[in-house]
Amino acid sequence: MSDTQQRQKQQRPPKNDDGRMPLADHLRELRYRLIVSILALLVTTVIGWLMHDWAINQLVSPACHITGVHGYGEKTAACPNGLLVNNGVLSPLTFTFKIAMMIGFILASPVWSYQLWAFVAPGLYKKEKKYGLGFVAAAVPLFLGGAYLAYEIFPKALQILASFNPANFSLAFSGAEFLDFFIRMVLVFGLSFEVPLLLVMLNFLGIVSAARLRGWWRGAVFGIFVFSAIAVPTGDPVTMTVLAVPMCLLYFAAVGVATLRDKAVARRYAENPDHQLDPDQASDIDLRPSSLGADDLPIPEPVNATELAAGEPMTYHPDDVT
């Protein structure tokens, strides 16, 4: 083992067999996880800085090819309508640095997500760890699916917003406002796709049953459309529908998963009522009386005639049968 590995092993606080440690060791463990995550984010941000030109071209291309509008920015081959501008001395640097950080945050997601899981996992039971890994594995593709849908609908949303510009006015999108609008759409779509997973988690924790989720479907569909109308930055019906329809489908998928899980739990409970108990919980004791047959009665020990003749006292036990 090298000196660097030995130092890292000494810096990390020791754990007990059940993952418990004092508060000070918890704080040192948190500091270690944060340092690893920040170092990974710094490295990936440098990588993002090196590839920021490609990322900017992929991001601004939809806005630069909106037809029917004209901006007061410089018209180039990459941006023929001149909609995108940067105002201020530091705005070009700020815009580029935000792009690099966004790329770095995405590239470093496996590292910081694992560090978060490694900090929380020692305090969980084996069953909770299994559920946690399953939810994390499902949350990542759901968020990425929502983010990809936001990227696909992003040009249409920009075109709808630009269509409200009067014909005798020029239009321009500042770089900072443009990037903030894109990040907001990605977060809204990505986090919205996590809501059905939250319902499944509540079902696995025994808080919400599948029957109740099935009874809520009318109100859930209505609430999803209202939420989409409020959360979508553009507020147009097209973008709202694009967000609401997948959320409704995911809601019914969550109802299906909860139904299968409740049926499996009911079947296991019928076979063994104590199957859901944690290791620290005691199982129920069967206090029902049972009748004893003649074969179940204790057999008394034979009396030694010699001892009886010698006058030694006989001892009786409560369980002796005379």
From TrEMBL:
Quaternary organization: The Tat system comprises two distinct complexes: a TatABC complex, containing multiple copies of TatA, TatB and TatC subunits, and a separate TatA complex, containing only TatA subunits. Substrates initially bind to the TatABC complex, which probably triggers association of the separate TatA complex to form the active translocon.
Stretches that traverse the bilayer: 30-51, 99-119, 131-151, 181-208, 215-232, 238-260
Gene Ontology terms describing biological process: intracellular protein transmembrane transport; protein transport by the Tat complex
Main subcellular localisation: membrane
Protein name: Sec-independent protein translocase protein TatC
Keywords, ordered alphabetically: Cell membrane, Membrane, Protein transport, Translocation, Transmembrane, Transmembrane helix, Transport
Region feature (Disordered): 1-22, 274-322
Function as written in the Swiss-Prot or TrEMBL entry: Part of the twin-arginine translocation (Tat) system that transports large folded proteins containing a characteristic twin-arginine motif in their signal peptide across membranes. Together with TatB, TatC is part of a receptor directly interacting with Tat signal peptides.
Similarity section: Belongs to the TatC family.
Membrane topology reported for the UniProt record: Multi-pass membrane protein
Compartmental location: Cell membrane; Membrane
HAMAP family linked to this entry: TatC
GO CC terms, sorted: TAT protein transport complex
Residue spans of biased composition, Low complexity class: 1-13
Recorded GO MF terms: proton motive force dependent protein transmembrane transporter activity
One Pfam family this sequence matches: TatC
